[in-house]
Amino acid sequence: MRINSMPSTGTSRRQVTNSQSMRSVAPGRTQSEPPVPLEVGSLVEVVNNAGVTVYGVIRWLGIPEGKLETWAGVELDYEVAGCSDGVYKDQRYFTCKENCALFVPVTKCSPDSRFVCSSTETETFNTTEIPPVPAYEESEEDAPPVPESEAASLFVGKMKGIQGHINSCYLDATLFSLFSSSVTVDAICNKPADKERPITCILKSIVNRLRRQGFVPAQSVMNFRKKLGCETFSKNEKDPEEFISVLFQKVLCIQPLLKLRSEGGSSHGAYTLQIFLEKEQMGQTPTVQKLLDTSCMSGDIKFETMPSCLIIQMPRCGSKYKMFSHIIPSTELDVTDLLFNSPRECFICGQMAKFECLQCLPDHKLQPGRIKQYCNTCNTQVHTHRSRCSHSPQALAVPEGVAVDTPLPRRTMQLFGVLCIQTSHFVSFVKYGPDSHSWLFFDSMADRHGDDEKGYSVPEVRACPELGDFLGQPEEELTWANPALTSELVRRLLCDSYMYLYHSPEMSVSKPSDGEP
């Protein structure tokens, strides 16, 4: 079905006059077909006899017992007195919340006008500024990740990326960050289509359209939110970490991305990692590397295995509280010293480390913010200093069979996405290739066409190579940078960061959870 939440082109343009004339049909008169083809999953609106419009999604289509025409079972956005929970005349057709199921002839339904632009609006729309989007046809083949050489031409512009609607920016920004770049999670392509659940098929359709056309209309994402099965996802704004957990666990069926070992030897899985620390433990302008090291050291947390994908949530609460005015992104994250039971080198001499010291972490004489581990000799020498006599270095678990003089490789992860928030609105930065200048900025609600009731959001993707120039500076210069003197997008990256997304280049995020094929 052609989606009308965008400017239409050519023969695929659909007028709204049919739905308007449907509302003027005299009482008792019926139509054999709805004005626009509707199906299960279509977002629709229904005008009752009192002239009040209600909105919802079609959950069932068919001919109820005792009727001669096709009816629709609509799950409404809000409770309406007199409606049911999916039962009509003692027969259950679907299940939803009480007072949210409305059964009406399908001819009484019309496409949700909140996603539709009228022919008049289309004609006055400035097509030189916002190019029309061609119709899209589904393909059985999965679209591969977009290569770096094609990403800018595919994505950059207005009406690009994922179109936002009704507080969906947390979801739009997350999906764009995960699936737009060449660094992506492709577990959704592992299962045959005939064995997949509808929710997985919807996600596949979103990803394929994003990669082939560079644009996903709002109706697709709204339908995805409905299918998630969580009422709050379909009506209210959520935090990205909640959506990420549902996405990876319930939709992609991927085991927890992180296996964390905490104090006492207990272990647990997680999909995101929250930074916990005291502000006094850090300098005025921390880097992501220092935040991660300090948080894990303070909480006595280690990674049991090397993560394939690491999503780090910054120390802030939405748009209201930020522990730091700005944070310096670490384009490369070194997690070598955060791996449990992994060989580590002495901070001083480079030999095999045997001890680790939390109290040495902020020591300004020993490179503050860096994790400090020592061999036997260096541990004794460092802690004979009068300022460190009270420290309590902890013995490390050293794996057997590792030669003492063997060079130890560093384990690193690469930054590929940043979610940012400002005044409750989420946007994202995505690194779409290995070149340092290959950065995109995405806002699912960058502009608005029409009013709040009848208009629609205009998403936009912008190239921002200036991020590469800024982040390519030495760390010492970055920590002294004044965000007010940088470009708009660099400032937003520094001051509004909410989550950082890293990946391990040599590892794949595609293993299904236990019990899944």
UniProtKB/TrEMBL annotation:
Keyword Nuclease: no
Source species, domain of life: Eukaryota
Keywords: Cytoplasm, Hydrolase, Metal-binding, Phosphoprotein, Protease, Thiol protease, Ubl conjugation pathway, Zinc
Catalysis performed (reactions): Thiol-dependent hydrolysis of ester, thioester, amide, peptide and isopeptide bonds formed by the C-terminal Gly of ubiquitin (a 76-residue protein attached to proteins as an intracellular targeting signal)
Gene Ontology cellular component annotations, sorted alphabetically: centrosome; perinuclear region of cytoplasm
InterPro entries for this protein: CAP-Gly_dom_sf, CAP-Gly_domain, Papain-like_cys_pep_sf, Peptidase_C19_UCH, USP
Listed Pfam families: CAP_GLY, UCH
Amino acid composition bias (Polar residues), ranges on this chain: 1-33
Database matches in SMART domains: CAP_GLY (SM01052)
Residues annotated as domain USP: 160-505
Location in the cell: Cytoplasm, Cytoskeleton, Microtubule organizing center, Centrosome; Cytoplasm, Perinuclear region
Positions of the CAP-Gly domain: 62-105
GO biological process: cranial skeletal system development; protein deubiquitination; proteolysis
UniProt-listed PROSITE patterns: CAP_GLY_2, USP_3
Start and end residues of each stretch annotated as Disordered: 1-36
Signal peptide: none
E.C. designation(s): 3.4.19.12
GO molecular function, one term: cysteine-type deubiquitinase activity
Family: Belongs to the peptidase C19 family.
Protein name: ubiquitinyl hydrolase 1
Source organism of this protein record: Poecilia formosa
Lineage: Eukaryota, Metazoa, Chordata, Craniata, Vertebrata
